[in-house]
Design a protein that fits this description.
Blueprint lengths: L2 H9 L10 H13 L5 E7 L2 E10 L1 E12 L22 E3 L2 E3 L8 H11 L6 E10 L7 H8 L6 E7 L6 E5 L2 E9 L2 E15 L14 H8 L5 E9 L9 E9 L2 E6 L2 H16 L14 E10 L2 E9 L6 H4 L8 E8 L9 H12 L6 E4 L5 H6 L3 E5 L14 E3 H19 L2
Parallel strand pairs: 3-6, 3-7, 7-18, 8-17
Antiparallel strand pairs: 1-2, 2-6, 4-5, 5-19, 9-15, 9-16, 10-12, 10-13, 11-12, 14-15
Helix pairs in contact: 1-3, 3-10, 8-10
Length: 432
């Protein structure tokens, strides 16, 4: 089995969350068939979109088995021309030295190839404990597949779960929670003479919303630009593809002094909300938790649009322990109607985690030093831990400053190392 060839096939198969997973699941079935593993394809309807996911099982004589789970969906690629390492095509897998560039190379569908290949080594063996491989959907838009896995009872009989996310092969024992909110800002519109419409564009730098300091938010730049006294009002504003991604493009139509007559959105309510947002971010600098990087709660405005005399803003918070996001956002309620859209639980460290010990042993067995860390992002591990499983995150490739932005890459050498770690953990937890 050539890991790089199959990794490339996974990258070249689009699987943006909102479009469903049918093509990448079909590709995963091809892989499992070649490995001699039986795949079971599942279908789930969410908001009129049919999503696909799959499982493969090896039986064991006892329960308390191991789940190997990877999400197969990705965030949208954004501006294709920004993917300079892949010739302007985010779905063009491009090796360069030890790097494989392409959307989903690190986050995280290529990890499924490593897990499937490791599982295949145990095909035909008598296992002491059950082993299940899962490729989920909709992780980037609310952990939809992991929620369905738990809801359908398919975690019953399992005690351990290894979740695929880029970690440079570190064992991630804890991560922050994740909360998504919608703010609806009421707008005042008035007819005004002596104005002229102008089109504005702000260009930022995309990054994962867990590390906003590594990006440049184009929405926030637009808010700042609209404070110029030359602008007397707004007509429209739009930005954002995924709330967990720093938006790198924002467009607006504003009004400045001229000779026309137009229906002008008064900017005061948007400025007031933006002021309150900046005060919120400043307040979230405390408390700090040195177990995480960043060491405090962070937030990101990921989307904005105007509809029915309302500016609709979608934003997220990633709280450190001790911060209640629902309470933290209350000051914004003075300027907008707030609604909680999504809550993803944190992964709290487990005392005497047998799985963590097995992963550390596996790292040492393949010649690595012990690597244990935490993660600022949120993953499916939080849900599986909440369901009672001992969960650890691990995967090839770099996370911080790499995923959710153009020219994402994984480290080719780490793909085989990840496979070997999975093999060792399976041998520890599922064989006699």
């Amino acid at each position: 089995m050539n890991l790089l060839d199959w990794a490339s096939k996974f990258v070249e198969t689009p699987s943006v969350s909102a479009d469903g997973n049918h093509r990448i699941v079909a590709r995963a079935v091809e892989l499992l068939t070649e490995l001699g593993l039986d795949a079971r394809v599942h279908r789930t309807q969410v908001d009129s979109v049919e999503h696909h996911w799959l499982t493969a099982d090896l039986p064991g004589t006892h329960d308390d088995g191991l789940i190997l789970l990877t999400h197969l969906d990705t965030v949208p690629p954004g501006d294709a021309s920004a993917w300079t390492a892949t010739g302007g095509d985010p779905f063009n897998p491009t090796p360069d030295g030890d790097k494989l560039f392409g959307l989903g190379s690190a986050d995280a569908k290529v990890d499924f190839v490593c897990k499937a290949t490791a599982m295949a080594k145990f095909r035909g063996q008598e296992l002491s404990h059950r082993l299940r491989l899962v490729g989920t959907f909709g992780e980037e838009i609310g952990l939809l597949g992991a929620r369905e896995l738990v809801r359908s009872g398919m975690t019953a009989g399992f005690a351990f779960a290894m979740i695929g996310e880029p970690s440079e092969l570190s064992a991630i024992r804890a991560h922050k929670g994740y909360h998504v909110f919608e703010a609806r800002i009421p707008l005042v519109i008035k007819q005004q003479n002596d104005v002229e419409a102008v089109h504005l564009i702000e260009t930022g730098q995309s990054a994962h919303s867990s590390t906003p300091h590594l990006g440049k938010n184009a929405i926030e730049q637009m808010f700042n630009a609209l404070r110029d006294p030359a602008f007397v009002g707004l007509n429209s504003i739009e930005a954002g593809q995924a709330v967990n991604k720093i938006p790198d493009h924002c467009s607006a139509q504003a009004w400045k002094s001229g000779s026309e007559t137009g229906n002008v959105i008064v900017l005061e309510s948007i400025h007031q909300f933006h002021d309150a947002w900046r005060e919120l971010l400043a307040s979230l600098q405390q408390p700090k938790d040195e177990n995480f990087d960043p060491d405090h709660t962070v937030g990101n405005i990921g989307k904005i649009r105007v509809e029915d005399c309302t500016a609709v803003v979608t934003f997220d918070l990633r709280p450190v322990p001790g911060v209640d996001p629902e309470q933290a956002v209350q000051p914004l309620g003075e300027f907008a109607e707030l609604r909680s859209l999504r809550r993803n639980p944190p992964l709290n460290p487990r005392e005497n985690s047998r799985l963590l010990h097995a992963v550390v042993d596996a790292q040492k067995a393949i010649g690595l030093s012990e690597r244990v860390a935490t993660k600022a992002t949120c993953t499916e591990a939080g849900l599986l831990s909440e369901a009672g499983l001992d969960a650890v995150i691990l995967g090839a490739g770099v996370s911080i400053g790499n995923v959710h932005r153009p020219n994402e890459y994984t480290l080719i050498s780490q793909l085989d190392q990840a496979r070997r770690i999975y093999e060792h953990v399976i041998g520890t937890l599922c064989t006699c």
